[in-house]
């Protein structure tokens, strides 16, 4: 088994045979799959490594995101779900798209601060007028 070491240093045990654009992991329960999927954020995949059983880094990748997953169900003898073999497909992050998105987020924060400041100035101005007039 290999390990995927994410940007936040979270380690995920994965099946051997990963590549730059995909890796597989076997889960015993859907909740485990969902928990792993939540870890595969764009930030955590901005820089990550694959290590082997000995802990040696076999690959390092940057600027990926989880594009899709495919799930193969292995049924148990009692017809319940035995295992989920999930293949995660990754893709490159478009760095221009990311920069534009980050710029938009920054602009929204600036707009919010400007509105808050304008509200504060209006309130202070009204208080000053009330004191002078009354």
Estimated structural class: alpha+beta
Please tally the helical runs, counting DSSP H or I stretches of 4 or more residues.
Answer: 2
Question: What is the string of SSEs from the N terminus onward?
Answer: EEEHEEEEH
Mean pLDDT: 90
Form type: elongated
Whole-angstrom Rg: 24 Å
Strand order of the largest sheet: 2-1-4-5
Features:
alpha+beta, elongated, about 130 residues, 7 strands, three-stranded antiparallel beta sheet, 2 domains
Helix-strand blueprint:
Layout: E1 2-5, E2 11-14, E3 22-27, H1 30-39, E4 47-51, E5 57-62, E6 64-75, E7 81-92, H2 95-133
Antiparallel strand pairs: 1-2, 1-4, 3-7, 4-5, 6-7
Summarize the structure.
With 134 residues, the chain is α+β, with helices and mostly antiparallel strands.
Question: How does this structure look, described?
Answer:
With 134 residues, the protein is an alpha+beta fold. It folds into 2 domains: 1-93, no CATH class; 94-134. It is built from 2 helices and 7 strands, in the order βββαββββα. It has helices at 30-39, 95-133; strands spanning 2-5, 11-14, 22-27, 47-51, 57-62, 64-75, 81-92. The mean pLDDT is 90.
């Amino acid at each position: 088994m290999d390990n995927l070491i994410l940007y936040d240093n979270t380690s995920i045990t994965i099946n051997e045979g990963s590549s730059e654009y995909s890796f597989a992991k076997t889960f015993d329960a859907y909740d485990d799959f969902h928990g792993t999927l939540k870890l595969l954020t764009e930030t955590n995949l901005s820089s990550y490594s694959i290590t082997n059983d000995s802990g040696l880094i076999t690959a390092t990748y940057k600027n990926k995101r989880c594009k899709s997953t495919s799930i193969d169900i292995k049924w148990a003898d009692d017809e319940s779900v035995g295992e989920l073999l999930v293949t995660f497909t990754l893709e490159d992050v478009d760095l221009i798209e990311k920069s534009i998105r980050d710029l938009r987020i920054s602009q929204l924060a600036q707009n919010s601060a400007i509105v808050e400041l304008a509200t504060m100035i209006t309130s202070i101005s009204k208080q000053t007028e009330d004191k002078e007039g009354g």
